[in-house]
């Protein structure tokens, strides 16, 4: 399926927050391929800080994935490391990992990460629209989380016209209707929390630098969790069906 087109029957495989965990991505793709899907959509945070950033990028390229830019993608491409003053050994290690990831990916891939669009839009057969974004329509770098109130979610939807929002960023999957908009957070492939408490703990990690780029530099922990999240979004005859998956991972993922 060409990006932006819509067929009579489409099954989208939607993922996010791979964070360089190529083995976890491979497990998700293998599971999805047994079921069949038309297009892979990725809601950002592709390559950092996991162990296999280049392999992750190559797998996404081979799968002809439609990717939008996440926080860590922007950090990889644009963060000025020399201007960041680490406040702990953890932050220093994150900066070192950022530099190593840049070296492994090379300038060409970094340039492509910098050019990734913040959103991707897909027209629906019924005249509506689906938008893929890392965080939220109002701020692609600010995620919609499972524990937000309707009012908080509405503020992050802003005046975007989309009827369906596919997003990531918070690492916790959910499927929710707010203000007539269906919000489908697809969780995380590479750093899915083992529990809601695990996600809350990660949210307290401080970052060096400032703003969204700092959050991208100090992403959520070490990864290597026991499962990966993925979501099938099926578009059939004007209907939208959602199936959220939990893919078990071996230790190597």
Question: Can you characterise this structure?
Answer:
The protein has seven helices and ten strands. The chain is of the alpha/beta class and 253 residues long. It has a single domain (9-248), classed as Metallo-dependent phosphatases (Purple Acid Phosphatase, chain A, domain 2). Helix 3 (71-78) crosses helix 4 and helix 3 packs across helix 7. It is globular. One of its GO terms (molecular function) is phosphatase activity. It comes from Sorangium cellulosum.
Identify the CATH class. Answer: Alpha Beta
* Beta-strand residue fraction: 15-25%
CATH topology category name: Purple Acid Phosphatase, chain A, domain 2
- Total tally of structural domains: 1
**Record field, number of beta strands:** 10
- State the secondary-structure class: alpha/beta
> Which sequence of strands runs across the widest sheet?
3-2-1-9-10
The largest sheet is: 5 strands, mixed
């Amino acid at each position: 399926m060409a990006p932006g087109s819509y067929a009579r029957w489409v099954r989208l495989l939607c993922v996010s927050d791979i964070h360089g965990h190529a083995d976890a991505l491979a497990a998700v793709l293998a599971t999805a391929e047994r079921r069949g899907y038309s297009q892979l959509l990725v809601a950002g945070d592709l390559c950092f800080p996991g162990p296999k950033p280049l392999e992750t990028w190559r797998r996404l390229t081979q799968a002809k994935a439609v990717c939008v830019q996440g926080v860590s993608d922007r950090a990889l491409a644009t963060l000025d490391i020399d201007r960041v003053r680490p406040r702990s050994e953890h932050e220093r290690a994150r900066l070192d990992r950022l530099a190593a990831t840049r070296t492994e990916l090379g300038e060409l891939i970094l340039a492509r990460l910098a050019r990734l669009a913040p959103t991707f839009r897909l027209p629906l057969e019924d005249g509506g629209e689906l938008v893929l974004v890392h965080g939220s329509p109002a701020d692609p770098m600010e995620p919609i989380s499972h524990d937000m109130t309707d009012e908080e979610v509405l503020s992050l939807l802003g005046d975007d016209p989309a009827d369906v929002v596919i997003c990531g960023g918070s690492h916790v999957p959910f499927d929710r209707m707010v203000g007539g908009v269906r919000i489908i957070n697809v969780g995380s492939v590479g750093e899915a929390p083992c529990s809601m408490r695990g996600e809350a703990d990660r949210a307290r990690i401080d970052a060096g630098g400032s703003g969204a780029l700092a959050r991208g530099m100090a992403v959520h922990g070490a990864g290597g969790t026991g499962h990966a999240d993925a979501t099938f979004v099926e578009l059939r005859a004007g209907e939208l069906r959602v199936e959220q998956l939990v893919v078990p991972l071996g230790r190597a993922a």
